Amino acid sequence: MAIRTWTWVVFLLLALVSSSSPSCRAAEPPSPQQASADAGDLTVDDGLRTGYHFQPPKHWINDPNGVMCYKGVYHLFYQYNPKGAVWGNIVWAHAVSTDLVDWVMLPPAIYPTAPFDVNGCWSGSATMLPDGTPVIMYTGIDGENRQVQNVAYPKDLSDPYLREWVKPDYNPVISPGPGMNATAFRDPTTAWQGPDGLWRLVIGTKDNHRGLAMLYRSRDFKRWAPANRALHSGDTGMWECPDFYPVNDTKHVLKVSLDLTRFEYYTLGEYDRDTDTYTPDPSLADGNDGLRYDYGNFYASKTFLDTSKQQQRRVLWGWANESDSTAADIRKGWAGVQAIPRKVTLSLDGKQLVQWPVAEIESLRGAHVNVTDVLVKSGHHFEVAGLASSSQADVEAAFQVMDMDMDKAEAFDPAWRAVDAQAVCVARGADAKGGVGPFGLWVLASDDGGQEERTAVFFRVFKDGGKHVVLMCNDPSLSSQADGLYKPTFAGFVDVDLAKTGGKIALRTLIDHSVVESFGEYGKTCILSRVYPTKAVGDKARLYVFNNGESDVKVTHLNAYEMRSANITSDAAEPTSR
Ligand code: DQQ
């Protein structure tokens, strides 16, 4: 109790300097009354709830919305069903944080109140106006089930928690024009100002099978006019949740979420601010084969520019859906988590983005074990022992391929060039013996040596002419003894030249009960997977290194940390210390 009181005092002191300070420190925690987002008596099964990936106490969540930092407080809004664990009754739930790790739930910020959003408040974004006022633009579902775009402004700009939002009567500010698909017109981006002072934003839509990123302009954020042509389009069905932003001041990213396949892809390109023309890099795939933030369960993502740090950074949020059954979601009372926020940068060669969990998450690291220079012989595995539990862990490892002359590497089948990495990994799962690899981690493994349950995160190295082709996979086929689960194998190629790295390749995996979130080669290839072990739970969960390849592999280093739980609370009057 003394610690809690002391923490509270420190928090208040920090608050006194926060309103004018650029760092994300809170002014004061919300009161219990303010924080009670919704009431209900549903019993939630806590078994596989996450410890440090964001999720509310119960019910359904999906897309992250309107993320921003205001007066030193991070705001995460997200799509939420206040009435149950399936999608529906959608409002913007609201949580605040000073560090992107611990969160306090506030009451929903935006919910149906008016004819222009009576049937739901769907996804959207926040924009910081030059005077520091944040404005939210979101999709409202109106009385005729048309998708229209509405604005909302904070009621009280002196409240760093931005608890209340006002929707002007002049909404909607953007409606689907004649001939447009009114039930596929949604998810406005953060706006930006062009050299002519006009605001621009992009809305996702489709014309038959063609996905479109429609550009709109406005002088006052109130009256908006469509541009003559879309910013970009593709033959990939409805484009949801577009995101458009600069990286490294040299390139722009256009990311879209594909409603048809439920994965996302992005292009990198040149944006001419005078003509509003976006030209994707012609050397990169643009469409279903395009680059992805994440080759796993990661959707409806959105970035924001975090200017609160000395070195500003772009931070990415994404939603990870459940992959158990709807009946199981209803039974457990919750569905959906947010991935760990990731810092996004451009790779050195400018050909892809690189993502890394925000550094703040490392504050949760606890007890740790280290492995250095251990050779894993062909067909062998070993346990990384010493953690009280690895069901909530952060594992950083580097593997060294010993077969640098590629004697043992399997030839990359030219037929695979026409298919994606996932198909290769399905054909060559974690237990299919290979030449170089599969090697990597068994996480959330049962304590019988991972015989009954394990999720494999691994690499497989092929030779293609004189070059290595590196594949990263997540194979959950043995992840659970439970029935009725969707257990897709996920995979992506990793752009790493093993000749230059001395045969080394890095893997970081964030394990969180039902989340396995992995970063290959320092964030070049990322895969998030949802799994539901029945044996490898709590302190029964084990961690192994395995090598199912013919060639030996060395673990040059491995650090595995237990992760403390984040403090995510819906009714805390005061923040607790960890
Ligand atoms: N989810 C929202 C839509 C968006 C979709 C509705 C993507 O605005 O297009 O909850 O998951």
UniProtKB/TrEMBL annotation:
SMART domains listed in its UniProt record: Glyco_32 (SM00640)
Parts of the chain that traverse the membrane: none
InterPro entries: ConA-like_dom_sf, Fructan_Metab_Enzymes, Glyco_hydro_32, Glyco_hydro_32_AS, Glyco_hydro_32_C, Glyco_hydro_32_N, Glyco_hydro_beta-prop_sf
Domain Glycosyl hydrolase family 32 C-terminal: 360-561
Every Glycosyl hydrolase family 32 N-terminal domain range: 53-357
Record's keyword terms, sorted: Glycoprotein, Glycosidase, Hydrolase, Signal
Signal peptide: 1-26
Superkingdom, natural source: Eukaryota
GO molecular-function terms, A-Z: hydrolase activity, hydrolyzing O-glycosyl compounds
SUPFAM superfamilies assigned: Arabinanase/levansucrase/invertase, Concanavalin A-like lectins/glucanases
One GO BP: carbohydrate metabolic process
Keyword Calcium: no
CDD domains, per the entry: GH32_Fruct1-like (cd18624)
Stated family: Belongs to the glycosyl hydrolase 32 family.
Protein name: Beta-fructofuranosidase
